[in-house]
Amino acid sequence: MTQISESTILATFDDLVSKGSIIYGPYETVNGDVDGYPMAFRICPSLTKKPHAVGAKLDPSFDKSEKWGPGSDMYLTDQRLRVAVLNGTHDLALNLFAIDRPQFVLLTLDSYRRQHEPLDVDDFKAALEMVNELKDIYAIFNCSEAAGCSRVHKHMQGLRGPPTAFDSFTKGSSKIPFKSFAHHFTSGFSSVPASDILGVYQQFLEKTRKLLGKNEQEVCPHNVVLWRDWMIVVPRRQAAVEKASANAAGMLGSVWVPERSGVDVWLRLGCKSVLEQLGAPATKE
Fold first, then answer.
1. Superfamily of domain covering 23-278
2. Phi, psi of 182 (to 5 degrees)
3. In a 3-state reduction of DSSP, which class is residue 244?
4. Cα–Cα distance measured from residue 205 to residue 48, given in angstroms and rounded to the nearest whole number
5. Domain residue spans in the chain?
6. Cα dihedral angle (253, 259, 262, 267), rounded to 10 degrees?
7. What is the pLDDT of residue 116?
C-alpha cells in the first residue's frame, strides 16, 4: 500500500463532503447498557439519504454517477474516493455514506463478486493491509442482506475503533446476548499470515452453518469484525426486527440510525431481545 498521510486523507474527505460527493454530517450519541453489554446509538441525520436494503435506489442526485465496475451497485461519485489498491485485488476507498471521519470501504476489483460469498484469502490479505496501515481502523464484513448489508458488490468496511462492546468478547463476558465466536491471533495482525486467519474463519463458518442449519451450498448470514488482533464472527438470522436493524458494528454495540425514532424502536422492543433475534441466543458450550 502506498503511504498516504492521515492529513491528506482527511483533507480529501472534507473536500468531498463539501462538494456533496460524500454524505456526512453532525451526529448525536446516546449511550446505553443491556444487562452489562454496552451499547452506543449514533443518530446521524445524513443517513436518511443512504439505501438501507439491497436493491433500494440511491438519492436522485447520484443517478448520473459512475458505478464501481460493470457488475457493481456501488457508486463512484468522484475519482478521489479511491485511496489505494490493496493486494492487487481490492480498492480501498472513502465510503460514500460515512458515519466516521473518515470511513472506508474495501471493494473487490472484480465487481461481479457478491456480498453473500464468504471471505477468501485475498479478502483477508487486503483487510490486513488496511488495518495495519490505517491508524485505529477496524474491519467489518456483513455477509448477505440478512447480516445487514445494503449493497451486493462484495466489500468490507473500515471504521474508527474501538467497537463499543469489544472488551466483552476479549474478556469472555457472559453478558453477550447472542452466540458468537472469537479468536485472538497472538502473533498480531502485523505478522499473522492471511491464510491462518482464513483457517480460523472457515472453522467458525462451519460452526455458524451448523447453528443456522445451513449447508455449504446455501447462503450463510454472518458478521465478521477484525480489531486489535482479534477476529469475531457473529451468526445472523435476520437483518432487522421491525425497524431495529444492525450490521456487524451494531452487533458489537455500535448502532447507527438516521433519527431518534430509530433508538426508540430499539428501546421499545428491548435491546437484548432485538440482539437475540438478529443473531442467535447465547448458549453455553
1. ATP adenylyltransferase (3.30.428.70)
2. -135, 145
3. strand
4. 33
5. 23-278
6. 80
7. 97
pLDDT, tens only, 210-252 = 999 999 999 999 999 999 999 999 999 999 999 999 999 999 9
Spatial separation of the C-alpha atoms in residues 279 and 186, rounded to whole Å: 27
Phi and psi of 40, rounded to 5°? -135, 120
Q: State the SS3 of 81-101.
A: HEEEEECCCEEEEECCECCCC
Which residues are 33's β-sheet partners? 38
Smallest CA-to-CA distance from 222 within 136, 83, 115, 133 is with 115
Nearest to 138 by CA among 48, 253, 41: 253
SS3 of the chain: helix, strand, coil, percent, to 5: 30, 25, 45
Q: Which residue type sits at 194?
A: A
What the block records as the C-alpha cell of 284 is: 453455553
Please say if the pLDDT value at position 54 is more than 90: no
pTM of the full structure: 0.94
Percentage of the chain lying above the pLDDT 90 cut: 85
